[in-house]
Amino acid sequence: MLAADPFLLLILSSPSGAGKTTLTRKLQERFPALRFSVSHTTRKPRANEINGRDYHFVTREEFELLVERDAFVEWAEVHGNCYGTSRAEIDRARAEPDCSGMIFDIDYQGARQIRAKQHDAVAVFILPPSMLELERRLRGRASESEEVVQRRFKAAMIEIEHYGFFDYLVVNDDLDTAFRHLEGVVLAERSRRFRRADLAERLLRAGKL
Ligand SMILES: Nc1ncnc2c1ncn2[C@@H]1O[C@H](COP(=O)(O)OP(=O)(O)OP(=O)(O)O)[C@@H](O)[C@H]1O
Ligand SMILES: Nc1nc2c(ncn2[C@@H]2O[C@H](COP(=O)(O)O)[C@@H](O)[C@H]2O)c(=O)[nH]1
Question: What separation in Å is there between the alpha carbon of 189 and the centre of ligand 2?
Fold first, then answer.
């Protein structure tokens, strides 16, 4: 197990359609020092998605090559496609002087793999207010075929059964309320002593304490 790491690894997981992407975008605006981790995927891009911003879109062959080369910190097959977080993505963010952490929009399998490598990664599970509303959101997004919507909806209960692994649960009913709860998680986690070790030192050195 690695030593306590001041760099915040914030994992958001949920069943498909519960609102991770929406909440992640809001978190990035509020906390610009947190970088969004752009995953690799074999899924085809949606109409509004941009390669390199939303995902690194790759073929299955390219993905398998990256797995062979041990390029991923974690990866998993989700809803029939492969998704993975590259080591390079995290190394790049760590090298940026104004970056204090990362946000991962990944499934529970990936959350487990990251946690196994970095025990103080913070894992948040986003719950939909109801299955009915989850189905409405999945359909309302209108980015997938009915078959894909059904497949994702069927997988939702299995994903929800893994909520016990996570440190925090946030219900995404009213978006602003859910966001306030997430904001609270980030503020609290950033205030942990091991992430603020330099604070007392700096105040002492400046003669303020
Ligand atoms: N609190 C909310 N109230 C109503 N609609 C919402 C809320 N949060 C998100 N949505 C809508 O629900 C749909 C699904 O949200 P989003 O794409 O963020 O989910 P997701 O968890 O990232 O899904 P996936 O895992 O498939 O990527 C979107 O159309 C989004 O605008
Ligand atoms: N284990 C990982 N899961 C990931 C990663 N990137 C995204 N995901 C999860 O996949 C599903 C579907 O995403 P979508 O964009 O196709 O709707 C969702 O649960 C994501 O959180 C990853 O790198 N690793």
Answer: 23
Residue 22 one-letter amino acid: T
pTM of the model: 0.95
Helix, coil or strand: residue 96? coil
% of the chain surpassing 70 pLDDT: 99
Q: Name the residue ranges covered by the structural domains of the chain.
A: 8-208
CATH class as words, domain 8-208: alpha beta
Name 166's Cβ contacts closer than 8 Å, sequence gap at least 6: 13, 111, 123, 124, 125
Minimal-distance CA residue to ligand 2 atom 14:
16
Alpha-carbon distance 28 to 35, whole Å? 7
78-126 pLDDT, tens digit each: 999 999 999 999 999 999 999 999 999 999 999 999 999 999 999 999 9
Testing ligand 2's pocket by substitution, the residue of 73, 74, 78 carrying the most ligand atoms inside 8 A of its CB is 78
Predicted pLDDT of residue 61: 98
Distance between CA atoms of residues 94 and 100, nearest Å: 8
